[in-house]
Known about the structure:
Number of domains: 3
Radius of gyration: 29 Å
Strand content: 5-15%
Largest sheet: 9 strands, mixed
Helix content: 40-55%
Amino acid sequence: MPMSTWTKETKTTLLYIVLAFAFSVAMRMVWLYQFSGYEPFYHNAQFMINTNDGYYFAEGARDILNGVHQENDLSALESAASQLTAFFAYILPFSFETVILFMPSVLSSLIVIPIILIAKNIDSLEMGFVAALLASITHSYYNRTMIGYYDTDMLNIVLPMFLLWSIIWAVRTNEDKYLLITALDILVYRWWYPQSYSLEFAFFGLILFYALVFDRKNLYNYKLLAIMMFAMVGLDGYVRAILVLGVFYIFKQKQFDRYIYYVLALSVALFFLSGGFDPIWSQLKNYVFKDAVSAGEKGLKLHFYSVMQTVREAGHISFETFANRISGHTVTFVLSVAGYIYLAYKHKVMLFGLPLIGLGFLAYVGGLRFTIYAVPVLAFGVAFLITQTAQFMPTSRLKFLAPLLLTILAIYPNIVHIQNYKVPTVFNADEVKILEQLKGKADREDYVVAWWDYGYPLRFYSDVKTLIDGGKHSGDVNFPVSFILTNPQDVAAKMARLDVEYTEKTFAFVKENKERVRDKNLTIFSNVEQMTKEYGFSDTNDFLLSLQTEIELPQKTRDIYFYLPIRMMDIYPTVEMFSNIDLMSGEMKKRSFFYMTKSFKQEGNSINLGQGVVFDLQAAMLSIGTQKVAVKRFVQTAYDKNMKLTKSMQMANPAGEVSIVYMSNYNTFLVLDEKAYNSLYIQLAVLEEYDKMLFEEVVLTPQAKVYRLKI
């Protein structure tokens, strides 16, 4: 359509979209400006990304572009984010690093389009423009879509907002094209984010409620419900697309209108028969009905510590945090809720935004990550109140200035947040150099033992395999790695060899029995349970004790490396929790004593380590509150000018219960009991005291240590 034939409303709509989009992208450039020229954040002449999970999709995109990957390397070849990234990297004249850095800023800013189009439907473009400005930069939406936050969140809210737009227009217009658009929205959303089941089902339920209560005799509503359900069934995406197109063709034929109810019933039956509700229930269990310890239902019924207890995104949050993440400020949040209620009263179609609000409010019990869903819909609320104020202004000048001032007040706290939100890149340049050195020494079939936080970056930069990562970190797979990192070297070395070989063995077993696994007719037991049984034990505790003896290990099929970053000290107590459990009973064991501090000061003959911990240098005693504990040894570490570690050790009391390590270059004190002191992590990463019969050094730097297992 030539521009000359565009209506004033169309031109205004496009202008608002362009301005809001430009504003959203520009605000995301603040981080880039703040760290411009800061070399530790650069790699290959470009900023690195600032989210761990991004490296999962980056690895998949890289392998798609290269056309090669290793069997069982868990590369995200099938991920929509990886496929879209590979497409952009292939057609655009930018480096791969530039593409993944800027994709979140550009794609996430598309949210302004459905927001403004929804507002257009209810004849309030100005409200849509204000809502778009606010929603695009509100705390939680910005945090998870800023430049460098390369993750599925860059479209996770954009796509359901387009779905909300198509549903509203479908209900308002009853045009056939919106039946197809709504179904295609669901197909694309499911392709992009396979966990979208719950939100899609909530939209379906709300439309059903609307149809039964407000518009029961309108056949169009039941067509909409049926085609949505066919798009949601638990079948392959191509099959669902064919079903949708077939159903749309039927709905275009008026002679089939008499069968609409039967088609709807068939779609619902197919949804449940195809297991469409199973993932919804699974998500509820993970985020709402989560347990600290999970037990297997078959075999030895081992108990493992649940990772959901340690993921901050799934933890409880305060009301202030909740409100700020959704609207930027508590006052704005309250006004947003009130405004949304008023808006829904004036325009009932806005009630279709309730699933997004409901999922956002789930954050209060299920974790802060969900707040992002409520952001765009509640932005309509405060935007509606702001634009309504213009009607009460006595002059045309005030009708313009009042909404402008109120809009600035609403978005200002979010701009301040953006200026202060200076998150670092996942790794710094020196750490990446270590991983690239590892890549030059390790084979692509080799494994690297590291905690799951570092799994994706390790695979991307070192092109190796890992045992756990940001997606594979359930209690049963975390247990062996936690056991390895927090136990003595000889026991840890045996578990490393066992876990790697049993992991590959399980991959082979699943491949041979893929049909039974797919049909859920075969139980895959954890590596630890398989080890227990195959070594002739019925009690896993007895098997773990046997690792202290000379057991026969599986035949070595590949090398194993250990990546031990100094930064892991911050999470050492969390890492230990996953193996500090009686697998048979589920009871948590007594935790080892691990205390780290950078805040200390010398007071005469004592060093105050903070939080009631005081080290008496003369008596070699440690006071922990009112308790006094003898110090066994004092160790000081330092790096010389060649970055080689030097150590000095003073034995104080052979019967002492704790050791004190002063890492001078890090300005850090560690207070450790014998279990923590003798752990593989402390011995190899902090002290470089490794058993040369079991390990050999590969890379030793102040940032991280890499060793190769010899057995």
